[in-house]
TrEMBL record, chains A, B, C, D:
<keyword id="KW-0547">Nucleotide-binding</keyword>
<feature type="domain" description="Arginosuccinate synthase-like N-terminal">
    <location>
        <begin position="7"/>
        <end position="169"/>
    </location>
</feature>
<keyword id="KW-0436">Ligase</keyword>
<dbReference type="GO" id="GO:0005737">
    <property type="term" value="C:cytoplasm"/>
</dbReference>
<dbReference type="InterPro" id="IPR048267">
    <property type="entry name" value="Arginosuc_syn_N"/>
</dbReference>
<feature type="binding site">
    <location>
        <position position="96"/>
    </location>
    <ligand>
        <name>L-citrulline</name>
    </ligand>
</feature>
<keyword id="KW-0028">Amino-acid biosynthesis</keyword>
<dbReference type="InterPro" id="IPR001518">
    <property type="entry name" value="Arginosuc_synth"/>
</dbReference>
<feature type="binding site">
    <location>
        <position position="127"/>
    </location>
    <ligand>
        <name>L-aspartate</name>
    </ligand>
</feature>
<feature type="binding site">
    <location>
        <position position="266"/>
    </location>
    <ligand>
        <name>L-citrulline</name>
    </ligand>
</feature>
<keyword id="KW-0055">Arginine biosynthesis</keyword>
<dbReference type="GO" id="GO:0005524">
    <property type="term" value="F:ATP binding"/>
</dbReference>
<feature type="binding site">
    <location>
        <position position="121"/>
    </location>
    <ligand>
        <name>ATP</name>
    </ligand>
</feature>
<keyword id="KW-0067">ATP-binding</keyword>
<feature type="binding site">
    <location>
        <position position="123"/>
    </location>
    <ligand>
        <name>L-aspartate</name>
    </ligand>
</feature>
<dbReference type="InterPro" id="IPR048268">
    <property type="entry name" value="Arginosuc_syn_C"/>
</dbReference>
<feature type="binding site">
    <location>
        <position position="278"/>
    </location>
    <ligand>
        <name>L-citrulline</name>
    </ligand>
</feature>
Length: 406, 406, 406, 406
């Protein structure tokens, strides 16, 4: 394959690893390298990535830097939150949901620049390689894929550093850079490695870069109001903002109040278990708020059908199948359910707690006190319950008369 | 039906409502009444119930008071927690899981005393009537059921009080008694009614009778260790106790640290939405801990299958189908998964937060650092990932070559 | 309720039972009766229904007769067949799918005529009462419903006939009329009652009114070609016809060749088991053909997701929930899957057998011989399978090294 | 790897392909080869396999020939039929269900003979390689696996024949041997290749080796009676036989009457579609009979739960996950449902048709005519249906009053 490739688009962060990959691609594949750096809210400046790419000999016109923050929140994060998606009951899928967008944009740049290959810096043991590559191939089945971590022999930190030094790549550690393996975007930060590799161990507090420790969060709670339209957040405290700006603000609120830390062992798609720590301050609030607004506006069976299908939907995202017929089918089902999910939720934030204070929907509330109090009402006749129970019990009555025991 | 009934077993709490029912049954049905009072950890003394029953003319031998606490936790709460059951994503099913045990015991007393009917004090708009009656009929399809709230015309608080006074039933309010409609047992306390009938309103803090407000919980966190065997809790801080005692201790810990409050609008089985507040201090810790010990001991697909079936299982319990073929089938599936769910979880409790500090399993951990770090290992060859991805992507490649877009 | 009702729309077939109901409504409710007779292909002339209604004193303008055949097939039968729906693995839902359309149209006539109630002739033990009434209420929650079979005391054949004779309703049996309880429409005929009430007994052959006995079907087989577009049948033997006409023709073909008889015991929604015989000649061919065209055009995971959700979808239709948020959600998912389900299926019909002879899709086939033969191809590298298997087996390898046995 | 392997157990049929593999293993791996030949009812004598192995230099003590027919039917086929398993709505999984048993036995022989590797003759594009290898690894995670088709360069029929001739392996075609790629066992025969590679083409009739063409089946039908106990077939026409003998007899009956042919395009686990023809004469009768006996003995919700989970269960078997925690969990659920599935089914076989004539269960029938006829009975009060419908409709009524349309 090595001789066939003329041009490759690399998902380039500007960091040490992808800089080494950049150099390695030039050397091993003797091909033109195009760098693609996406801003999905990881909180780093992107101009240094441009400078580093130039320094490594990339032509100005081959450097692509894109701000994908709004697309990320509007077309990826929000649709996913309509489903109340959690992987294995806990993980808010912060990394998983960003990969398809990067892969899609990278594949589009490949088409635009007539590149014949794409490359990424994900390792051979993780989920991200799958998410990237399924995304590439869903967009362009003819793309060749170079996954250096699965190919090269730089399979230890020492070899990597040696390679970098040999090729004049700056290996000085950024001041304050985390020693953990991190992934960050507008929705979350994840941490892996080091002490986390022992699931019995608890990480030191300065691992967390975003959220306050609940113990150090303000003693005063804060009450906010979130407004939803068709299942999507549209305003915080009555202020309408773009999707990305809403999530940024929600992140600030959550981080301040110590909300959204998660420490879990999860099952990777490639077959092993791994430990990860995640902080998802805004997302944690958003999930709770979305469930709450659904609680008064969504039909019971619609809600239950969503709940039954949610684990499958979350698996698809975790495993990298965002661009797939089955995800689109599930999304059609979910979106169909959201048209009346309109209203406001009042929430109190306090030292890691997300406390619901109230929920209301001007036009779409299905809650009506009259129906559930024990006094008579026009819609519900208590005597009807006898027939309801009797017919639901009929199969037990028949079975019981037949001698069956449960 | 009224003339046919000779003997009825009443689920009798000793409170005002079931005392009125007791009298009403005697008057309307002219039948012998047997009272059954269960101790499922509701935290009230049961002897007063005996005295009240005697005062209402019940014969000594017709008064049944049973301590069901151990059976409740061992055979109902723990099996349910093996499933990580949550109704509508949030509710830990504290009331739902207690009803079948009461119904079963009541039906057994009916058989033992040759009673031809059973009666309960649940209203005609709630879920409990269904849970009780499905339970009765699953055990004895020939039992007649008297549900006074669906029959009589005492359909307002005023009429009830008038009836009580007329028949010499004590209507003086117990000092400190909650004005809310409550249900309590070893797993939880629930609250309904009053201000909760407006879902936009937040209840005053003294509604909560069990858990500390997180704001008033200790400033010092507390670390505990829970040990599991085959998915069930067997020890706290290395001390083995009976199931009921374990849950009692876990409740104390949770309550002290402000853990387990929930305020939600839920969908009742009988068709309307209702607002409930719940406090489940021990259960909230238990759920998190159980998921955590599963995270290192349970196979991925076993875990995912459980997650996909959990909403259905939770619905069954919520709707009153504990004694049903389908619940037994799901339980068989769940129990089959738990044989390796052994190990310990370290947890920090702090102002409403349940923070996982570590998890370990001496013999049954499937977590192995070697498999997930990026260095080579004997079990996992990174190059295998290329084939894995390629074959999983094959259907996209074929579809893409056919011109399909996702 | 009896005095409140001024005008009622009756689902009127013109037969004896609904004629008695018509009279009974006039007498008991002293209200104006509007008759609604739908042509959904039951194969009876509808003009006699008009004459009978007039004879029973219904005003000309209160008689509604509607041809719903095209709407029935296009908006009900075809969407359902996109899902390959079968209730309890066998039943093609012929009666179930017709009821919502009748209920909807009847509710619309009630709105149009300012009627305050609707009435139907379904018994109190069957599924149809549920299907009608859920349909009415989904369209107009304020409608009152009169279900005479649950109200009156004409609870035996003798009493009914006596009532009819007393009120001058013709009780002479139509020559050749089946002694079975039948329901017929463009999709099927069903039979209940008589010898069928013993599930160990086999009905005599002249019970079946539509399909040939396979033993008497032609000795010569017949080959037909069905063409699909977006999952719907659009042509038979290259001839494009309206949905209703396509189904009529397919019925003729199926009936001639002894196709589509089914004899089963099913579980009714109201709690008991019942025996039914069904003949669905065209539908039986259509289901097989639709699965076949999907087999070459539908993505694997899309197909599997449909299969997993099909039983729930079929239950919804069987139980009367066609007009429900959950059915609409599932329909959105199913319809999303059908956009590439285009192509032709060749089928041989022979004495009860539906034999697939071939399938092709000009533009949307995902089948490619090159991919599945054992010789090399450009898309599939056999060595990739090793990695695919290895990673899928990883959890077994890890578990096995840990000492677990399966 | 080549030098590390000392002893390999080969799944050896005695045919040309596995004979070539045998020789190739000896040459390439320079290791001792143990042959394992299983009798799972493929209908070939196994002694020739022994002779061929001896001729290829295999030591007498290294030749294992095992009759697995009873184990196959009792522990694999029957448990699977309890689930009514069909892959993609049609395929009875005849090949899929045999592979795990072969893999398990082969892995056991490897342990017994201290072999360090196993080998099979499945190609790199099919499902069987996955089924074999997942089975091996579930039993012994340390086994090395040699899959010659993925390794060698004999990737065309010509090269294979040349290799055979060069090494003195008999390449003369057995008289009457099918030109199709076949797999046969007690449950089915499958066909692939040749004209089947064009899904628009119909195979010539002499491809089918087992079942009569329905057109040539007897003009006289035949009525048989099948008896079930706990969901398993135990007798045909009142004669109790071993599981294997029952299936053999059912196959004879089905084959004679032209029952069980299937021609389909299916989705392989490795990602592509493939065309297969299957004949499953006994299995086709058995599936229909099992559903029928369930129809009168199984609770409704138990049946529906099984139906909803069946596609997942069938996928697991098709994909090779028989030995997996998730299959065992589903099996526990299914087996729990079968304890009352006892009784007899009368079936008429006629030219490809399996016609149910009756079903009965002496002690476990839940069918009772009294419950479904329209006359009054003691168990069912028709008026109860009104309450049942009203409460089930409540969410529509509330939504409708809120202005929602469905």
């Amino acid at each position: 394959m090595k001789n066939e490739i003329k041009k490759v688009v690399l998902a380039y962060s500007g960091g040490l690893d992808t800089s080494i990959i950049l150099k390695w691609l030039q050397d091993e594949y003797k091909c033109e390298v195009i760098t693609f750096t996406a801003d999905i809210g990881q909180g780093e400046e992107l101009e240094p990535a441009r400078q580093k790419a130039l320094a490594l000999g990339i032509k100005e016109e081959n450097i692509f830097i894109k701000d994908l923050k709004d697309e990320f929140v509007k077309d990826y994060v929000f649709p996913m939150f309509r489903a109340n998606a959690l992987y294995e009951g806990e993980y808010l899928l912060g990394t998983s949901i960003a990969r398809p967008l990067i892969a899609k944009t990278q594949a589009q740049i490949a088409i635009q620049t007539k590149a014949d290959a794409v490359s990424h810096g994900a390792t051979g043991k993780g989920n991200d390689q799958v998410r990237f590559e399924l995304g590439y191939l869903a967009f362009n089945p003819n793309l060749k894929i170079i996954a250096p971590w699965r190919e090269w022999d730089l399979n230890s930190r020492e070899k990597l550093l040696a390679y970098a030094q040999k090729h004049g790549i700056d290996i000085s550690k950024k001041k304050g850079k985390s020693p953990y393996s991190m992934d960050a975007n507008l929705l979350h930060i994840s941490y892996e490695g080091l002490v986390l590799e022992d699931p019995a161990c608890f990480p030191e507090d300065d691992m967390w870069r975003w959220t306050k420790n609940p113990k150090e969060a303000p003693n005063e709670s804060e009450i906010i109001e979130l407004e939803f339209q068709k299942g999507d957040l549209i305003a915080i405290n009555e202020k309408k903002l773009s999707p990305a700006k809403l999530l940024i603000q929600l992140n600030q609120l959550g981080a301040k109040h110590g909300i959204g830390r998660l420490d879990m062992v999860e099952n990777r798609y490639v077959g092993m278990k791994s430990r990860g720590c995640y902080e998802t301050p805004g997302g944690t609030i958003l999930l709770k708020a979305h469930r709450t607004i659904e609680s008064i506006t969504l039909d019971r069976e619609a809600a239950h059908l969503k709940d039954e299908l949610m684990p499958k939907y979350a698996n698809l995202i975790y495993n990298g199948y965002w661009f797939s017929p089955e995800r689109l089918m599930l999304q059609a089902l979910i979106d169909e359910s959201q048209k009346y999910v309109n209203g406001k939720v009042s929430i109190e934030l306090y030292k890691g707690n997300v406390i619901i204070r109230g929920r209301e929907s001007a036009n779409d509330s299905l809650f009506n006190t009259a129906y559930c109090t024990f006094e008579e009402d026009e819609v519900y006749n208590q005597k009807d319950a006898a027939g309801f129970i009797k017919l639901n019990a009929l199969r037990f009555i028949i079975a019981g008369k037949n001698g069956r025991k449960f």
